[in-house]
Design a protein that fits this description.
heterotrimer, A alpha+beta (165), B alpha+beta (754), C alpha+beta (352), A: 165 residues, Ubiquitin-like (UB roll), DNA polymerase, domain 1, 2 domains, 5 helices, 36% helix, B: 754 residues, alpha+beta, Aldehyde Oxidoreductase, domain 3, Aldehyde Oxidoreductase, domain 4, 3 domains, 17 helices, 25% helix
């Protein structure tokens, strides 16, 4: 039996044949859709390198069967920048040196985007650290990661204030 | 935009040219934040198949059966590579013609010498099929009892430790020093096996075209990898093209090409198609090296003034049953403290494990946590503040060799770090301080040190008629920032704006940049770049100063300086000419020159060369539950010239967190009976998460070192771990009054002692 | 991973029927199951995907004042549901102390209840494990067992249940609603799990095909809202399994404890309800002396299963601390580090 699913990936609808139901969203993105920005660090939900947004929420794509996600709206790191214009999180990660080797970085940024969408952390560095703890960084660029997320959160908070005022 | 991060007291002083010393953001930053930076496993050549390792579940014995038929019958499986079905090799994988050539398991026999050793490779059309094929091999074994742990067997004195150091080194009479001591301590410390666990698992995509081989694989040493592959497959080095533009972390585990990477190449050879082989996380706990466990005994004595009369550091470690690598832990005591007598020694036992290898600050980190703990214990025994004790025993010359230091701003690190941290408020006795919520608060410190090494590298510089430049060296960026820091050196070397320089690195067809290890890559490749730049500028100057039509005519080589794409007369800077004009008039599209970087043997003979630092840590400990949190760390480092303070800050932070992790988190747990690692994953092999990382502060102290190399660079990749691990351990003692001598410190250690 | 048939039933009865076959397993988010399948620990022949079943993703009030939570409600959604978190703060705190934000966004309520042990010997398919392969032995018993069970274990199995979520649920008398071949039934969560005895492979009372469709908290479970905490000691600040954890819920009346609920995590093959400790607490004064007696009662039957004596003392101290924290009142907002000892609130007792 050949199953097929349809996904919206970074705004583009894709119809995908899935001859093997074992394929995870992560392997689908990386090996079939040529979206290799999403990384595989552990393949077991223990490192966060594979973090993507599914229907706006951050999840570990390594522990998600593609076949179970028919109809899902997926955002990967490739879908963040608008042309040459970086997403504010991407720019902040560069500015605050929130990475070294860069391998965990797509997952960190997607996780940070998820964290911002969740609206729980605000500008509290401790809540940001806790909320970003599902993304390991062996280079340990955590200080820069926290600064980058905080920077974007503060900018968003300031914008919100301006709109209210 | 955020304000520039001021790391140094006076950045301008450290500036070499217009680029060196500047906190540039990473030049590969956009690639990395957009997911476009290509790592090896991202490649997908046409017709590629997937290979997955099958690994042994026993630690010693032999494989008696592999159910190849079951694996092959799984839909999608193309072939199964086994000891009896594999392409021939030109060289025995167990041959060892130099100490840096480590034996690897390439299916040369059915023998098993450690758990997680590769025993077969399944190749399939899909990753899913290859993975299941490997599971279906269900091997049977003839099992011998595993030798596990530091007491597994009779010990011996290794022939050499670390990168060829003597196993026993003596200076003065330690026994006499201890006998004469007013106070003495004798303490043993244990450190566990640790695994590099780079976020990127080792990966290779290999394609053969006849006898030509194209590879994508992360490498900290392209030329060495090329040489090893050439030997194993019996092909010329120039037939091998390796791309390694980005490593997803290395930490030493990608310094030498590993067995599994070679198996990927063999698999591609076997099936005649491109093959991708990526290690599963659990496969990284065996064939790709680790930091060996140690048991270290330190005996220290002091006179009535708290000056060390003797320092003995003995380290017992393990190596594999079939190869030799010995963690040089005791060598950490050679450099820092001015004891009248020092003796360092090593012993080892052979156990059934993958061969230990270099892991970030190999020997230095392991030895440092024991030494810095012992120094702390000695200071307490003397009733002296631990920083005061260290300052009192600070070495004016390298204690073990008697050589002067090429430079050593450790005193400034001590004082500036202490000031930033507020150290002098610290009560001498432990368990004195609580925060507003009742948590125990402790402050500890440690001295950091790491040798300033130089390897060998080459670079090629080109100036083009359009006024731009090219700098080429096969350098490796594993996160330290080679793409940026080396480009900064290149720009200054060529006298060009950095955006006018095309910096090429990360492939094996470029000049050999040496190995990215030993914290020496920026220094080594940087000096090669600097020299190549100087050489091509000299050629250009030659063209100009010999040409009557040039405003520089007659200035002589020594009489011009290169800046912003122009040569200026040194004695009259208004007389200048652009590179483009000089080349155009000479009718040249481009000129090129090469340069090398290597250690200066004279300077090395005359000076002890080390980076230094002081790390201060604050921990909070729950008095009832024993849970520990590091709340603050300050590191002050003197590491010669800083090329890019932004990247250096990140490197030093990373090292400090590794130090914290050494003290509190990392440990591979091995089953005593089976020799299997029971936590080969990132859920239970703990590395710090974001919430573990406290407020970090780094400052660098100016250091002008004319001896280490022409650029005065000492390197910052590893020093951050040393000192930090001990600082955290000492802070835990200061918080609780419990001295834990087995690392990582666990909740149970504090709970059961308290 | 073994090949499997993928089935996506349209209704609960269809699901039950499809999952009744030998070798079938339910797939919800898969955050635990796929991990186990990748490790070869689970090798189902058929996955019955219940994630598209209608009506299982709702949080609904019950007539008795309690709440019914559909089995497919995601952990994060439950924890962040404002009225749920207000009524059952210890449950929300436990949820937020588990795993990572990514996993909580995916993992379902039903799946979390059936989370398998993290015992390394269970995960390591080369090791003997009675839970994974009945009758094969228990390599953990003489192995690396620093973190294993101290309550309710047997020589056949010393594994612990890893869930945080289930600990306060058990304390609050949660009930699971199960649909099986024989229709729908309710089982107290505490009774869903079986202790290993000599058959550790029987982890729950579920029969083949049984599907957890909802979780219910009774009306009186919210009576503890003002004094309810979850506390979890672990070896890194976040994203780690508990060494030991505790949920403590108090109903205080006129300065004394009218009713108490205590459960422990990480100590047994099931979330461990400390009924004896609750009896000690009832009617007592909310002070260190009472809490210490309760802790003694909670761990009265504890014994080390290996190199884990320390967990008994740790568990006692966690009970005392969790009770102290509960007594000093549920914080307005879940702390930045949920369930961490470092998320102290003013007035929390140390060295209690």
């Amino acid at each position: 039996m050949i199953n097929s699913i349809s996904l919206t990936v970074n705004g583009v609808r894709r119809d995908i044949a899935l001859p093997d139901p074992r394929v995870t969203l992560l392997d689908l993105l990386r090996e079939q859709l040529d979206l290799t920005g999403t990384k595989k660090g552990c393949d077991r939900g223990q490192c966060g390198a594979c973090t993507i947004l599914v229907n706006g929420r951050r999840i570990n794509s390594c522990l998600a069967l593609a076949i179970s996600h028919n109809g899902a709206d997926i955002t990967t790191i490739e879908g963040l920048a608008q042309g040459e214009k970086l997403h504010p999180l991407q720019a902040a990660f560069i500015e605050h040196d929130g990475f070294q080797c860069g391998f965990c970085t797509p997952g960190q940024i997607m996780s940070a985007l998820g964290l911002i969408n969740e609206g729980q952390a605000g500008c509290d560095p401790e809540r940001i650290r806790e909320g970003m703890s599902g993304n390991l960084c062996r280079c340990s660029a955590y200080a820069g990661i926290t600064e980058a997320v905080l920077d974007v959160q503060r900018t968003l908070a300031a914008e919100k204030e301006r709109r209210v005022a | 935009m955020t304000p520039e991060i001021r790391l140094t007291e006076s950045p301008a002083h450290l500036r070499h040219g217009a680029n060196i010393g500047q906190p540039l953001t990473r030049r590969d930053g956009i690639l990395k934040v957009t997911g476009k930076a290509p790592y090896a496993a991202d490649r997908h050549p046409r017709g590629m198949l997937y290979a997955v390792l099958a690994v042994s579940s026993i630690a010693r014995g032999r494989v008696t059966f592999l159910d190849v038929a079951a694996a092959k019958s799984h839909p999608g499986v193309v072939d199964v590579m086994t000891p009896t079905h594999k392409p021939p090799l030109a060289e025995d994988p167990d041959a060892k013609t130099n100490p840096f050539m480590f034996r690897m398991e390439l299916l040369q026999s059915d023998a098993v010498r450690y758990a997680n050793q590769p025993i077969a490779v399944v190749i399939a059309q899909t990753l899913e099929a290859a993975t299941e094929g490997a599971a279906l091999l269900t091997p049977t074994y003839e099992t011998l009892s595993a030798r596990v742990g530091l007491d597994a067997d009779e010990s011996f004195v290794p022939p050499a430790v670390g990168p060829g150091h003597p196993p026993i080194v003596e200076h003065g009479d330690v026994e006499a020093g201890l006998a004469a001591a007013a106070k003495a301590i004798d303490a043993s410390y244990e450190t566990p096996a640790q695994y590099h666990n780079a976020m990127e698992p080792h990966a290779i995509v290999a394609s053969w075209d006849g006898d030509k081989l194209s590879i994508d694989t992360p490498s900290q040493g392209l030329a060495w990898a090329q040489g090893r592959i050439a030997g194993l497959f019996g092909i010329p080095v120039e037939n091998i093209h390796i791309r390694s533009p980005f490593l997803g972390g290395g930490f030493g585990s990608k310094g030498l090409i590993s067995g599994p990477q070679i198996l990927g190449i063999m698999a591609a050879r076997l099936v005649g198609r491109p093959v991708k082989l990526v290690l599963r996380r659990e496969h990284m706990y065996g064939p790709v090296g680790h930091r060996a466990p140690t048991r270290q005994r330190l005996r220290l004595g002091t006179d009535g003034n708290g000056l060390l009369t003797a320092l003995e550091h003995h380290a017992k470690t393990v190596t594999s049953s079939f190869d030799d690598f010995y963690e040089s832990a005791a060598d950490a005591s050679h450099t820092l403290y001015a004891s009248r007598a020092i003796r360092t020694s090593h012993e080892a036992v052979r156990v059934d494990t993958g061969t230990p290898l270099f892991m970030r600050a190999p020997g230095e980190a392991t030895g440092s946590i024991a030494l810095e703990s012992a120094i702390d214990e000695m200071a307490w025994a003397c009733g002296i503040d631990p920083l005061q004790f260290r300052i009192r025993n600070d070495a004016e010359v390298e204690p073990i060799s008697g050589k002067p230091f090429s430079s050593k701003a450790l005193r400034e690190c001590y004082t500036k770090g202490a000031e930033r941290f507020g150290w002098w408020e610290r009560p001498l006795s432990p368990r004195q301080v609580r925060d507003e919520n009742g948590f125990l608060v402790g402050w500890g410190m440690g001295t950091a040190t790491f040798p300033a090494l130089m390897f060998q590298a080459n670079a090629r510089a080109v100036l083009r008629a359009d006024g731009s430049g090219v700098m080429e060296t096969g350098a490796h960026d594993m996160g330290q920032g080679a793409w940026t820091a080396l480009a900064q050196i290149a720009a200054d070397g060529l006298g060009l704006d950095i955006d006018r320089v095309e910096f090429k690195a990360g492939t094996s067809d470029l000049p050999d940049a040496g190995i990215a290890g030993g914290s020496a890559h920026t220094a080594t490749a940087g000096v090669a770049i600097h020299n190549a730049g100087a050489a091509v500028i000299a050629k250009l100057a030659d063209l100009a100063t010999r040409d009557q039509r040039s405003p520089l005519f007659g200035a002589g080589n020594a009489g011009v300086i290169a800046r912003n794409g122009r040569l200026h007369r040194r004695d009259d800077e208004t007389r200048c000419e652009s590179y483009a004009d000089i080349l155009r008039r000479a009718g040249l599209a481009e000129i090129e020159a090469t340069g090398g970087g290597a250690a200066d043997p004279v300077a090395q003979a005359d000076y002890a060369m080390h980076a230094h630092g002081a790390v201060f840590a604050e921990v909070k400990v729950d008095p009832d539950l024993g849970q520990i949190r590091v709340t603050r760390m300050v590191g002050a480092f003197a590491a010669g010239r800083i090329i890019n303070p932004k990247l250096v800050r990140s490197q030093l932070f990373g090292g400090m967190i590794w130090g914290m992790s050494f003290a509190l988190h990392e440990e591979a747990v091995m089953d005593r009976r089976s020799g299997r690692i029971m936590n080969p994953n990132l859920a239970e092999y703990h590395v710090p998460v974001n919430a573990d990382v406290p407020s970090l502060d780094v400052l660098t102290v100016d250091e002008h070192d004319p001896h280490v190399n022409p650029l005065g660079i000492k390197g910052v990749g590893e020093i951050g771990i040393t000192g930090s691990a001990g600082a955290v351990a000492n802070a835990v003692w200061h918080a609780t009054g419990v001295r834990v001598r087995r690392f990582p410190i666990r909740i149970s250690d504090l709970l059961m002692a308290g | 991973m073994k090949s499997f048939d993928y089935v996506r039933p349209a209704s609960i009865p269809e699901a039950v029927s499809a999952a009744s076959a030998p070798g079938a397993a339910y797939l919800a988010a898969g955050t635990n199951l796929l991990d186990l399948m990748k490790g070869g620990v689970s090798r189902p022949d058929r996955l019955v995907d219940v994630t598209h079943l209608p009506g299982l993703d709702r949080i609904e009030p019950l007539a008795d004042g309690g709440v019914r939570i559909g089995a497919l409600v995601r952990n994060a959604d439950l924890a962040h549901d404002a009225s749920f978190a207000k009524a059952y703060p210890a449950v929300a705190e436990a949820l937020l102390s588990g795993a990572s934000a990514q996993l909580r966004n995916a993992a379902t309520v039903g799946g979390n209840l059936l989370q398998r042990t993290r015992c390394a010997y269970f995960y390591d398919v080369a090791s003997a494990c009675n839970r994974r392969v009945p009758g094969s032995g228990c390599d953990a018993r003489q192995g690396e067992n620093r973190l294993h069970a101290v309550l309710g274990w047997s020589d056949a199995c010393i594994a612990t249940h890893p869930s945080d979520f289930c600990v306060p649920l058990v304390a609050l008398d949660a009930v699971v609603e199960i649909e099986g071949k024989g229709g729908r039934r309710n089982v107290k969560l505490e009774d869903l799990y079986r202790l290993p005895a000599d058959a550790p492979e029987w982890e729950t009372v579920l029969e083949p095909g049984d599907l957890i469709v909802a979780l219910k908290l009774p009306g009186d479970a919210s009576d503890f809202a003002a004094h309810a905490r979850y506390l979890k000691v672990r070896e890194r600040t976040s994203y780690a399994f508990a060494i030991v954890s505790a949920a403590a819920c108090l109903r205080l009346e006129r300065g004394s404890i009218a009713e108490a609920r205590i459960a422990l995590g990480g100590v047994a093959a099931k979330p461990w309800r400390a009924h004896e400790a609750e009896k000690v607490l009832a009617g007592g004064a909310p002070n260190g002396e009472t809490f210490r007696r309760a802790a003694e009662a909670a761990l009265a039957g504890a014994k080390p299963s290996g190199d884990n004596q320390f967990k008994i003392e740790l568990a006692r101290r966690i009970v005392v601390r969790a009770l102290s924290l509960a007594a000093s009142g549920t914080p307005e907002r879940i702390p930045a580090l949920p369930a961490s000892p470092f998320s102290s609130v003013p007035g929390a007792l140390h060295d209690a």
